[in-house]
Here is the input.
Amino acid sequence: MTPDDERLLRRAIELAAAGRASGNPPFGSLLAADDGTILAEEHNTTITDRDISLHPELKLAVWAARELTPEAAAATTMYTSCQPCGMCTGAIERSGLGRVVYALSGAQLDDLKSVTTAAKVTMTGPALHDEAKVPVEGYY
Here is the structure.
Protein backbone atom coordinates (compact mmCIF):
# COMPACT_ATOMS: atom_id res chain seq x y z
CA MET A 1 0.00 0.00 0.00
CA THR A 2 1.34 3.37 -1.02
CA PRO A 3 0.41 6.66 0.65
CA ASP A 4 -1.72 7.39 -2.43
CA ASP A 5 -3.50 4.03 -2.02
CA GLU A 6 -4.25 4.91 1.60
CA ARG A 7 -5.53 8.38 0.67
CA LEU A 8 -7.84 7.01 -2.00
CA LEU A 9 -9.04 4.14 0.17
CA ARG A 10 -9.92 6.64 2.90
CA ARG A 11 -11.99 8.54 0.33
CA ALA A 12 -13.86 5.30 -0.50
CA ILE A 13 -14.60 4.88 3.22
CA GLU A 14 -15.94 8.48 3.29
CA LEU A 15 -18.21 7.56 0.38
CA ALA A 16 -19.44 4.54 2.36
CA ALA A 17 -20.35 6.86 5.24
CA ALA A 18 -22.20 9.13 2.81
CA GLY A 19 -24.12 6.13 1.49
CA ARG A 20 -25.19 5.17 4.98
CA ALA A 21 -26.13 8.77 5.81
CA SER A 22 -28.41 8.79 2.74
CA GLY A 23 -30.27 5.68 3.94
CA ASN A 24 -28.36 3.13 1.89
CA PRO A 25 -26.00 0.30 2.81
CA PRO A 26 -22.55 1.61 3.85
CA PHE A 27 -20.44 0.97 0.77
CA GLY A 28 -18.43 3.42 -1.31
CA SER A 29 -16.00 3.17 -4.20
CA LEU A 30 -14.00 5.31 -6.56
CA LEU A 31 -12.06 4.79 -9.75
CA ALA A 32 -8.64 6.43 -10.07
CA ALA A 33 -6.25 6.87 -12.98
CA ASP A 34 -2.69 5.63 -12.63
CA ASP A 35 -1.58 9.11 -11.49
CA GLY A 36 -4.11 9.07 -8.61
CA THR A 37 -6.63 11.37 -10.26
CA ILE A 38 -10.17 10.40 -9.25
CA LEU A 39 -12.18 9.65 -12.39
CA ALA A 40 -15.52 8.74 -10.80
CA GLU A 41 -17.03 8.12 -7.37
CA GLU A 42 -20.11 6.22 -6.22
CA HIS A 43 -21.82 4.94 -3.11
CA ASN A 44 -24.45 2.27 -2.71
CA THR A 45 -27.97 3.42 -3.70
CA THR A 46 -29.83 0.11 -3.58
CA ILE A 47 -32.41 1.37 -1.08
CA THR A 48 -33.10 4.90 -2.33
CA ASP A 49 -33.17 3.84 -5.99
CA ARG A 50 -34.97 0.55 -5.20
CA ASP A 51 -32.56 -1.42 -7.40
CA ILE A 52 -30.60 -4.29 -5.87
CA SER A 53 -27.87 -4.00 -8.51
CA LEU A 54 -26.76 -0.48 -7.61
CA HIS A 55 -23.60 -1.38 -5.73
CA PRO A 56 -20.92 1.28 -6.19
CA GLU A 57 -18.43 -1.20 -7.66
CA LEU A 58 -20.93 -2.31 -10.30
CA LYS A 59 -21.85 1.27 -11.18
CA LEU A 60 -18.17 2.16 -11.64
CA ALA A 61 -17.43 -0.94 -13.70
CA VAL A 62 -20.34 -0.11 -16.01
CA TRP A 63 -19.15 3.50 -16.25
CA ALA A 64 -15.60 2.42 -17.07
CA ALA A 65 -16.72 -0.03 -19.76
CA ARG A 66 -18.84 2.68 -21.37
CA GLU A 67 -16.57 5.71 -20.95
CA LEU A 68 -12.97 4.46 -21.06
CA THR A 69 -10.92 2.78 -23.72
CA PRO A 70 -9.74 -0.72 -22.83
CA GLU A 71 -6.22 0.68 -22.35
CA ALA A 72 -7.42 3.44 -20.02
CA ALA A 73 -9.59 1.01 -18.03
CA ALA A 74 -6.63 -1.35 -17.59
CA ALA A 75 -4.60 1.51 -16.12
CA THR A 76 -7.18 2.32 -13.42
CA THR A 77 -7.51 1.24 -9.82
CA MET A 78 -10.82 0.84 -8.02
CA TYR A 79 -10.71 1.73 -4.34
CA THR A 80 -13.60 0.34 -2.39
CA SER A 81 -14.66 0.25 1.24
CA CYS A 82 -15.36 -3.48 1.15
CA GLN A 83 -14.27 -6.46 -0.93
CA PRO A 84 -16.53 -6.64 -3.99
CA CYS A 85 -19.29 -9.25 -4.01
CA GLY A 86 -19.56 -11.88 -6.73
CA MET A 87 -21.81 -9.72 -8.93
CA CYS A 88 -19.43 -6.79 -8.74
CA THR A 89 -16.33 -8.93 -9.19
CA GLY A 90 -17.76 -10.28 -12.44
CA ALA A 91 -18.50 -6.76 -13.68
CA ILE A 92 -15.03 -5.55 -12.71
CA GLU A 93 -13.42 -8.41 -14.62
CA ARG A 94 -15.56 -7.78 -17.69
CA SER A 95 -14.91 -4.03 -17.65
CA GLY A 96 -11.15 -4.60 -17.81
CA LEU A 97 -10.19 -2.58 -14.73
CA GLY A 98 -6.56 -3.06 -13.80
CA ARG A 99 -6.64 -3.35 -10.03
CA VAL A 100 -8.88 -3.28 -6.96
CA VAL A 101 -7.86 -2.14 -3.47
CA TYR A 102 -10.39 -2.77 -0.69
CA ALA A 103 -10.62 -2.00 3.02
CA LEU A 104 -12.82 -4.68 4.62
CA SER A 105 -12.77 -8.28 3.44
CA GLY A 106 -16.01 -10.14 2.90
CA ALA A 107 -15.32 -12.20 6.04
CA GLN A 108 -14.67 -9.05 8.09
CA LEU A 109 -17.95 -7.60 6.80
CA ASP A 110 -19.80 -10.77 7.78
CA ASP A 111 -18.34 -10.49 11.31
CA LEU A 112 -19.85 -6.99 11.60
CA LYS A 113 -23.35 -8.13 10.62
CA SER A 114 -25.82 -9.02 13.36
CA VAL A 115 -28.07 -10.86 10.90
CA THR A 116 -27.46 -12.73 7.67
CA THR A 117 -28.99 -10.81 4.78
CA ALA A 118 -28.16 -13.19 1.95
CA ALA A 119 -30.83 -15.73 1.05
CA LYS A 120 -29.69 -19.25 0.34
CA VAL A 121 -30.59 -20.24 -3.20
CA THR A 122 -30.58 -23.80 -4.47
CA MET A 123 -28.81 -24.16 -7.80
CA THR A 124 -28.94 -27.23 -10.01
CA GLY A 125 -26.55 -27.83 -12.88
CA PRO A 126 -24.67 -28.08 -15.06
CA ALA A 127 -27.17 -29.73 -17.37
CA LEU A 128 -27.80 -30.09 -21.13
CA HIS A 129 -24.13 -29.46 -21.88
CA ASP A 130 -24.26 -30.54 -25.54
CA GLU A 131 -27.19 -28.25 -26.27
CA ALA A 132 -25.99 -25.33 -24.17
CA LYS A 133 -22.55 -25.22 -25.75
CA VAL A 134 -23.88 -24.71 -29.31
CA PRO A 135 -24.51 -20.93 -29.09
CA VAL A 136 -21.29 -20.42 -27.13
CA GLU A 137 -18.78 -22.42 -29.20
CA GLY A 138 -16.60 -20.16 -31.30
CA TYR A 139 -17.73 -16.95 -29.61
CA TYR A 140 -14.64 -16.53 -27.44
In short: The CA atoms of residues 16 and 26 lie 5 Å apart.
